Amino acid sequence: MSSSSTVIIGAGHAGVQAAASLREEGFQEPIVLLSDEPELPYQRPPLSKAFLKGEMDMLGLPLRAESFFPEHGIELRRGARAARIDRASQRIETRDGSVIDYGHLILATGARQRRLAAPGVDLPGVFSLRTIADATAIRERLKPGTKVAIVGAGFIGLEIAASAKSLGAEATVVEIARPMGRAVSPLMSDFYLKDHAASGLKFRIGRGVSEIRGAGKAEAVVLTDGEVLPADFVVIGVGVTAEDTLARESGLECLNGVVVDAHLQTSDPAISAIGDCADFPHASLGFRTRLESVQNAVDQGRSVAARLAGRPAPYDALAWFWSDQADLKLMIAGLSHGVDTWVLRGDPETRAFSTFGFRNGKLAVVESVNRAGDHAAAKRIIGTSKTLTPEDAANPAFDLRALAKR
Ligand SMILES: Cc1cc2nc3c(=O)[nH]c(=O)nc-3n(C[C@H](O)[C@H](O)[C@H](O)COP(=O)(O)OP(=O)(O)OC[C@H]3O[C@@H](n4cnc5c(N)ncnc54)[C@H](O)[C@@H]3O)c2cc1C
Predict the structure, then answer these.
(1) Does domain 6-112+242-308 have CATH number 3.40.50.2300?
(2) In principle, which of 1, 104, 108, 295 could form an S-S bond with 10, CB 3.0–4.6 Å?
């Protein structure tokens, strides 16, 4: 007889939300939540921000109190790495040899660091940032006067650089393209580069890394133009890829992550995938994507739980994201894919402004710096029938809030 248990692999933002939402939906069957990390499930965003700066300790990180799991009948197994999925018999084998039967399996395995292809990346003193252990190791080294080279000016690289600077460390950021280039408008990218540089962060833009050099530990980063950047340690933040190893090995369809349909179901109806590991069809954009954000992980956790509890609906949540760098709070609502027109609202000189991106005349994305009101309004306009023209968006006298409330 098949098991009635729902097993969730991965206890990050997506996995924990799916378990919690299943209970909120009235799901009565057993839930097993497997985490290969030793800690209580925790939030990742503070790892490059408040936790790295020492403004938050370990106590601030957990997603839920320890008692939450037993109180909600969720069997959390920490340090339990799923090693194999046997789809024919609907079983998981863990690395320590236990076997768990499932009626439904949810893959919430997140993402893993992209490797920088350069000699010396395995030297001691070269770090990346995904886990509490990574953040703790970096934080211990961020002392006044310490030289840190950060490879990659994505959100995480820039957040680490800003945190390092606030602790008195000397950070240099190496970026082959432009800062946050895959995620934000050119105007926003330029603003951040200028603002960070004015605050004392150093940049090497348009150059890659040819080698990390050192005798027994990282001591310098050699750039593609030959410049040698001395460094006490190095942090690599060149992006992540989906952690889809288990899915691939079990024969599930995978492309840019585990392929799911609009209901987050994989090519096997007994298995779903959510969060950073899932390659899903974006309903309003009409193409497949994979998102790396807390909002997406949490909303997909809720969506899969609703389906398993008998309330199926295609996943169509508005994507939104934030990044805190120094005293700049960047909030993004929507996605910039295919945007053909950008307009500016407010003045970048004041360090509080927004860029509005339009796709075929419709508002698609709003990037706000220190303007939470624009972000809140954007969330109520994007993807609705409310009409905002580029001219109105750029007009400071236009009442955006009134349109959003309509
Ligand atoms: C430093 C940092 C800062 C960030 N800042 C922001 C931010 O400001 N805003 C924002 O929206 N997003 C931010 N993100 C991204 C956000 O944290 C992720 O999008 C989110 O964590 C995705 O949730 P998830 O549950 O899909 O994956 P994860 O949180 O990565 O959780 C997946 C879990 O599955 C575990 N796992 C993997 N394989 C197995 C296995 N075989 N067996 C058992 N367990 C397994 C992993 O170890 C991990 O614990 C940040 C990420 C990082 C690393």
Answers:
(1) no
(2) 108
Q: Please tell me the residue having the least CA distance from ligand 1 atom 29.
A: 12
**What digits encode the pLDDT tens for the residues 153-209?**
999 999 999 999 999 999 999 999 999 998 999 999 999 999 999 999 999 999 999
Domain positions in the chain: 6-112+242-308, 126-236, 327-405
Cβ–ligand 1 contact at 156 (below 6 Å): yes
Give the residue among 33, 26, 35 at the shortest CA–CA distance from 5: 33
CB of residue 179 inside a 6 A radius of ligand 1: no
Q: Which residues contact 9 (CB under 8 A, 6 or more apart)?
A: 15, 34, 82, 92, 105, 106, 107, 108, 109, 246
Confidence of residue 129 (pLDDT cuts 50, 70, 90): very high
CB-CB neighbours of 237 under 10 Å: 27
Task: Tally the residues of the chain.
Answer: 406
Residue 274 Cα: closest atom of ligand 1: 26
- Ramachandran assignment for 116, one of left (phi > 0), alpha (psi -120 to 50 degrees), beta (any other): beta
CB neighbour burial string for 383-393, b if at least 16 within 10 angstroms, e if fewer: beeeebeeebb
On whether the 126-236 domain is CATH 3.40.50.300, my answer is no
Atom of ligand 1 nearest to the CA of 291: 19
Q: Is the CB of 46 under 6 A from ligand 1?
A: no
Say which residues have a Cβ less than 8 Å from residue 226's Cβ, sequence separation at least 6.
Answer: none
CB atoms under 10 Å from CB of 401, counted, come to 12
Q: Give the span between the Cα atoms of 281 and 169, in whole angstroms.
A: 42
What is the mean pLDDT of the segment spanning 67-81?
98
Measured CA to CA in angstroms, residue 45 lies from 32, 61, 127, 130, 275 at distances of 25, 9, 17, 9, 15
User: CA–CA separation, 223 vs 23, rounded Å?
Assistant: 52
Q: Give residue 284's pLDDT.
A: 78
CATH topology of domain 327-405: Enolase-like; domain 1 (3.30.390)
